Amino acid sequence: MQDILIYWQVIRKRLWLIVLLVGVTLGVIVLTSYLSKPVYKATVSFQVTAPLPAEVSIFNEFRTSSTSEELARTRINFVAVLQSEFVIGQAMEELGLDVDVDELTKQMVVEPDEESEFIRLRVMATDPELAAAIANVLMDKATQYFGELSAGSITANKEFIEQQLEKVKDELDTAREALIQFRIQNRVGSLDGLLRSQESLITALKQERDQAFVKGDEQATKGYEDVIAQRERELQELILLSSENEVLWDDVVRIKSTYSDLLNTVTEAGLKENEILSARFIRVIPASVPSHSLPRLNVKILLLGGIVSLVLGIIIAFALEYSSRAAVTTGTREQGPAVEVMFGLQTK
Mean per-residue pLDDT for 140-157? Predict the structure, then answer.
């Protein structure tokens, strides 16, 4: 209790100094706040509504993460791109701002909206139109650059598939040309039809031969047999041609099927690439020009300044008290011997 009383006496003794320090501090804060330019805050709200589209179908087997994990990763990556120096530099260049990147970064705040799934980008500037322009341009540049980064793998895959598509197309053209040349050289079109016609003709000739044989017309029978033998040789040749034709046709069908699959894959990759580049999975609510500036006097800063100056004043008061008492004690010790001599002379 005695110590508390001593402390109070020290504070009371130099209360004027403490009050003066607190008053000056608060006065400087208030004066600085009202002399500074008004600050305006513009807000862009955005929401990542879906994860990045999956890779093209031929690569889907390598994707194992869930949709929720992909959505969270997409959101985190987009915020990182939004706060990157590259995007901020692009926005500054478009707006013609002559400021440092770090300075503009300090004017940005990205924070989640507690009442919704949106995330807010807040930009502060001394001009309301400039604040809104910076916020909107930052969002546009971030969306564009994020789309380009995210579409990089799909674009590379699409280009690779397009290269394979060109090769397969060349193979298909070669196979078709080989089939056409084969049919031209052998003067055949639909071999199935020719085979059926030849078989029907041979069957008819055999019937005619049998009738001639029954009639006993040996010359006619011998003539039919010669013709039948000739037709059968032709049929054998057609069978050989049909086998070779089938091989060439199967090559055309196989390569055409591969070409069709690759063409569908390229189309799919192109659609997904355009979807990512358009960034339609990011919903944006643009910033409007703020009509009111932020309060010039920040109560939290004022309160903090008052507390700090009060504590500092008390510390200075105790430091001065300690110094004054130390000086008195030192002076008493130095004057002690002289006082004793004087006192001894007087007693004698």
Answer: 83
